[in-house]
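[job 4471] stage=fold_predict status=RUNNING
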Amino acid sequence: MKRIVFSLLLISALTGEFSMAQTAENPWRVRWAFNAIDIFPTNPDADAPFASTQGAFFEGFFRVGDHWSFGGPSIALSRHVKGGFSLGMQAAVNTLTNIEGVSNVEYPYYSLDGFITYSPFNKKIKPYFIMGYGLSSFDTTNGQGDNPYLLSKNASKTYLGGLGLDVRLGEQWYFTLQSSYKNAVESFGIKHFQNEFGLSYDFGHNDRDGDGIADKKDQCPDQPGLKVFNGCPDTDEDGIPDSEDLCPEEPGTAEMQGCPDTDQDGIADKDDRCPQQAGTLEMEGCPDTDADTLHDGIDECPEEKGDAENNGCPWPDTDGDGVPDKDDVCPDEKGNMDNNGCPALAEAVIQTINDYGSTINFMAESDRLLGSKTLETLQKIKALLQENPSGVLIIEGYASEDGSERYNKALSLRRAEAVKNYLIELGVDPSRLETIGFGEAAPIDDNSTPRGRAQNRRVQFKAKY
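[job 4471] inference complete, writing structure tokens
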């Protein structure tokens, strides 16, 4: 009867704490189990049970059937503290019947302990360590003594240490095995093993981030937050929770989804290439000061209109002729746009050269320069080129229809080359002279008459563009 009363008192105390703990914002665990008490091998010659508890007490681990007294119940309540640590208390009752050297005698057993457990694991099968301190009572009077209750002479302070194993059965349920060695402090105490097996249940509102909001209601269960934001933090204190804030560490506005817009151009700083200068969305938030379609954020010459291919800068024009160097065939020589930046002989000069050249004629099927008049003409052309040192002169050779077309084309080129070579001999820069042969094409007179054919055997001049 006393054991039943004691068990009810323990269970009531634990259940009372259980009901209070249900409102705490930390995980709790309750364990219901059967327990088996293992008394170490005793001296078979002793007159009293438990007479010798010295010696090979670890033998109790391996001789389950010899010393174990199965009974129950045991109950424990614990609370997770931090990391893998939990604190708790446990109580157990039993009746010892299986004692070596003693038969047909029952000894009531009671224990009450405070304990701490540690497990570095979080797996389906989770071993753990347990240690603690408490009271253990072996009522050797079998309930007949003057003071057979727990805090009687039968109760001894004990230290405990041991191992346990949790096997997950569901989201909150575990099958638990636990074995602890209890070392009595007082001389009359009994050293023993307490082995338990049963079910454990985790309960209470978990609060992983410790912000006082249960995980099931916490939208940010791993980050301490505010109740007004359902457990989510507002790191930058801009009134927008981090879970909805695209810039959680910079105060911003709701319009910008929590991001700042320093230049107030309607583009959040995180997307703005020029956050200090108001711009447009098309220009990535930057202005285009020089209006060259390249915004200031990437324009290397933001105040000077340029070309996108030159990073927003104008192309250089070394000779200052209005033709950029990239398009100027003669970048160091002033020219004109029509001649790709190169200088050209003026039309008046070309006209004069052609007037002179009209007196340069050739014999049929010949490229020889004949007569002093022809040589005097070439001297005049050389003088004109020296007076106009810029520009290239193209010498075009022609032939009459005497002979084949192929032959005439080759002959016309030789005639142009003869003029060129003579001008070079007179001192004209070869780079200023080019030749081309047109054969019998583009006649200027009738090829059916000797006079017409003589006129067609000629050279003409033009400026190179």
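[job 4471] summary: The chain is about 15% helix and 25% strand.
[job 4471] exit 0
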